[in-house]
Amino acid sequence: MRHAMKAMVFATTLLSAAVWADASPVGTWKTIDDKTGQAKSLVQIAEQGGEFSGKVVKLFQNPEATCDKCEGDRANKPIQGMTILWGVKKSGDSYEGGKIFDPKEGKTYSVKFKPIEGGRKLEVRGFLGVALLGRTQVWERAE
Predict the structure, then answer these.
(1) Which of 25, 80, 83, 84 could be cross-linked to 55 through a Cys-Cys bond (beta carbons 3.0 to 4.6 Å apart)?
(2) Domains of the chain (ranges plus CATH)?
């Protein structure tokens, strides 16, 4: 009985690894503050018609925060509920071609991201111009 239980746990582990091996970025991700290392927000990424977008569904520190550095339609709007990622398409094993918006700075960047560690994490790179000039964050799957 004990061997059967171990075999079942092993099979379940292998199956879980296989499911996450070709992980999709669709889901909810915990963003981490670059300076403090603390959880900053939850971003929910969805796919529609081959394009991926993401919105802030929860702010941990200040849920009522508004985008005070934003211009246009986003000016002084709540950050929670704001779409910050759009127009991204799958390209090989990564996702690119879209934009990511940083409400803290009120700036929009080009973006590319890639599921890593079997889909448990998402490596997100925002950049201006060439991908070499930018910043990379690692988001953790919240589901």
Answers:
(1) 83
(2) 24-141 (2.40.128.520)
